[in-house]
Write a structure and sequence with these properties.
The protein is of the alpha+beta class. 23% of the residues lie in helices and 34% in strands. The strands form 2 sheets. A 5-stranded antiparallel β-sheet has the order 1-4-5-6-3.
Length: 144
């Protein structure tokens, strides 16, 4: 059995990310999660903006975030994400926000689906280039 790939992105909590108390504003977590997904896709050869130009999109269908401890201005954070992609149209991404001491501050689950942007229908048979990229995100060898 192959271990899942863990995709990492480093961030620093900047003043514009926080409230007046120096705590990261809850809505910014969603921005960082999206940024980390787009970065992971890029690292396996899929430019998200080219994906949308080719008539596809990956909208969020549901999410959950558990805020365990606050993120403070100036903190260095690593977001670790694991993609769980099977034959189902649903794409599941589990992420953890870790501080420099490797303590988990936040956990999240995001679910997406691939859609056709023209008619907003769910794409059940993914194009080969995307299936191969998703295999890489999962930590498996490509199909071909």
């Amino acid at each position: 059995m192959t271990a899942k790939s863990v995709w990492k992105m480093n961030k620093i909590v900047l003043p514009q990310d926080s409230d007046h108390a120096g705590v990261m504003w809850h809505g910014n977590y969603f921005k960082w999660l999206e940024e980390s997904r787009i970065k992971a896709l890029s690292e396996v050869g899929v430019n998200y903006f080219d994906l949308t130009k080719n008539g596809f999109d990956l909208p969020l269908i549901n999410t959950s975030i558990k805020y365990i401890l606050p993120l403070y201005i100036g903190e260095k954070i690593t977001i670790e994400s694991v993609f769980n992609i099977g034959k189902s149209p649903k794409i599941n991404v589990n992420s953890k926000f870790l501080n420099e001491k490797n303590k988990i501050l936040t956990i999240s689950e995001v679910n997406l689906v691939l859609i056709n942007r023209i008619n907003f229908s769910i794409v059940r048979k993914r194009p080969d280039f995307l299936s191969n990229a998703f295999c890489k995100l999962n930590g498996y060898k490509t199909k071909r």
